[in-house]
Write a structure and sequence with these properties.
Layout lengths: L1 H7 L4 E5 L7 H4 L10 E2 L2 E2 L2 E3 L2 E5 L14 H13 L8 E5 L6 H9 L5 E5 L3 H16 L4 E6 L4 E2 L6 E2 L7 H8 L3 E4 L4 H9 L10 H22 L12
Length: about 240
């Protein structure tokens, strides 16, 4: 949805689904099962959908086949998708990473100069525990953190302005204060976000919907934070990790 919103605002955007074990990008963007990318000059041509250039392990493995891979193999697949894809000229390449601080995250931190990381959390404590570890990892490898987005922050019933906190009080303010980070936004729980992603048409494609307006605003804030990181020279070059 963030990528779609950036594209709607005129940017050229690519998305890499870095979750090798559980790729969801093909489903969320309505790419038919079994779709495979073409090759050109020994490079992978990204799948194009909704105005985005896409690459995912979901395009490389059969839909009903599990990616049974050890750490080094995961890193090889990830580097192939990232470095051998013919992305062309992009304003933004969004790397959608799974939770954790393992091979996927470290590989990305090592092989590409990252502008920054956007931290996504939900309000409950169990999510915040994982996010704390992610923030610590990015700090260790010197990747700037652009800010925090709290997903499914609250719900508003039709005809009411009262906020219902499904997962309890927001944890984002405490997280932001602890690490000195900005809160880029708090996304309400919208049922149509779920149904539209399941149907392959992200909610952000409708810019006038309630969710579309929120994502449009988030995209602007993320873009400004990324520009600030670039201009300040904080974006991170390749990082060497000692094992």
């Amino acid at each position: 949805n963030l990528a779609v919103s950036l594209q709607k605002q005129g940017a050229s955007v690519g998305v890499l689904d870095a979750d090798i074990y559980g790729p969801s990008l093909p489903t969320m963007l309505g790419v038919p099962p079994g779709t495979q990318p073409m090759m050109q000059d020994n490079q992978i041509l990204p799948i194009e959908k909704q105005g985005l250039k896409l690459m995912s392990a979901g395009f490389l493995f059969p839909p009903d086949q599990a990616a049974v891979l050890r750490g080094p193999m995961v890193s090889n697949v990830l580097q192939q998708m990232l470095l051998q894809t013919k992305w062309g000229e992009l304003d933004y390449l969004i790397l959608d990473m799974p939770p954790g601080t393992g091979d996927i995250q470290l590989t990305i931190s090592q092989v590409v100069p990252l502008t920054g990381a956007v931290i996504i959390t939900t309000p409950q404590k169990i999510s915040l525990i994982d996010v704390n570890k992610g923030i610590a990892m990015f700090s260790q490898v010197n990747v700037p953190i652009l800010g925090i987005i709290e997903n499914m922050s609250y719900m508003i019933q039709d005809g009411s302005e009262e906020k219902i906190y499904l997962y309890g009080p927001s944890g984002a303010p405490h997280l932001a204060a602890t690490y000195g980070l900005d809160i880029l936004g708090q996304v309400p729980f919208y049922t149509d976000v779920v149904t539209k992603c399941d149907s392959g048409v992200p909610a952000a494609t409708d810019e006038n919907s309630a969710a579309g307006v929120v994502y449009h605003d988030l995209a602007g804030k993320v873009a400004r934070a990324a520009s600030t990181a670039m201009l300040s020279g904080e974006s991170c070059p390749n990082v060497d990790i000692e094992w």
